[in-house]
Amino acid sequence: SQQGEEDPQALSIQEGENATMNCSYKTSINNLQWYRQNSGRGLVHLILIRSNEREKHSGRLRVTLDTSKKSSSLLITASRAADTASYFCATALNSGYSTLTFGKGTMLLVSP
Amino acid sequence: DTAVSQTPKYLVTQMGNDKSIKCEQNLGHDTMYWYKQDSKKFLKIMFSYNNKELIINETVPNRFSPKSPDKAHLNLHINSLELGDSAVYFCASSQNPSGTAYNEQFFGPGTRLTVL
């Protein structure tokens, strides 16, 4: 069954506001990754957080991971119009052969 | 230089035809993937190759046949195209221990396939 589920499906905010997206998954993982996809383009890796980590930062991005709740959040601070994109979480299992399992994504619209 | 490249970017063809999509990565990675993204943007793994060997085949019809002539290339050939094959196909690469997804993946720009 599908591993990651993002929430909300769509988010519309103004420039300068913060955007928070959530991801829930079902089984134990090795790591969770967040990717961005601009319209008509490929996916771009944003952050990878491993199962023994709780929080990671990269520029205006902050990712948290709660393995007890099997959930993660991506916070984009001081959003810009250029942040408009779809954001996907993807999980990697800890055992056996494994590839990334993607959620359905959150579509973020940042208005000027 | 583009890290992961795919050709063609767009592919429009008739049902029943056979077509190929090519992928090349210049990152020196040992693992390559094919994903299918449907009209609802759901991204699903199709194949995973490690050092030219097929590692994962996720219940993809055997009309789809990947070929990896070397570590830097992973091509996808599709026979007898069907309407339901219309989607965007993404190639990706990573440096992962065989059969794992422990590291980030780098994606190509995608090939939009439309079957009429």
Summarize the structure.
The complex is a heterodimer of chains A (112) and B (116). Chain A is mainly β and 112 residues long.
Number of DSSP E strands of chain A: 11
Which radius of gyration of chain A do the C-alpha atoms yield? 13 Å
Please state roughly what percent of the residues of chain A sit in beta strands, choosing from under 5%, 5-15%, 15-25%, 25-35%, 35-45% or over 45%: over 45%
Query: Can you count the beta strands of chain B?
Result: 11
* Helix percent band of chain A: under 10%
Distance between the termini of chain B: 34 Å
Instruction: Count every helix of chain A, treating DSSP H or I runs of 4 or more residues as helices.
Output: 0
- The H/E string of chain B reads EEEEEEEEEEE
Low-confidence stretches of chain B: none
Distance between the termini of chain A: 38 Å
> What integer is the average pLDDT of chain B?
92
Largest sheet of chain B: 7 strands, mixed
Helix content range of chain B: under 10%
Biggest sheet architecture of chain A = 6 strands, mixed
Which shape of chain B, going by the Cα principal axes?
Answer: globular
**Multimeric status of the protein:** heterodimer
Determine the structural class of chain A based on helices, strands and strand pairing: mainly beta
Low-confidence stretches of chain A: none
Report the sheet-strand fraction of chain B: over 45%
Largest binding interface between chains:
A-B, 25 and 26 residues
Please identify the structural class of chain B as seen in this structure. Answer: mainly beta
Description:
- The complex is a heterodimer of chains A (112) and B (116).
- In chain A, 0% of the residues lie in helices and 57% in strands.
- Chain A is built from no helices and 11 strands.
- Chain A has strands spanning 5-7, 10-14, 19-24, 29-37, 43-50, 55-58, 61-66, 71-76, 85-93, 101-102, 106-111.
- In chain A, strand 4 (29-37) and strand 5 (43-50) form a beta hairpin.
- Helices cover 0% and strands 54% of the residues of chain B.
- In chain B, the strands form 2 sheets. In chain B, strands 2, 4, 5, 6, 9, 10 and 11 form a 7-stranded mixed sheet that branches.
- The termini of chain B are far apart.
- Chains A and B meet through strand 4, strand 5, strand 9 and strand 10 of A and strand 5 and strand 10 of B.
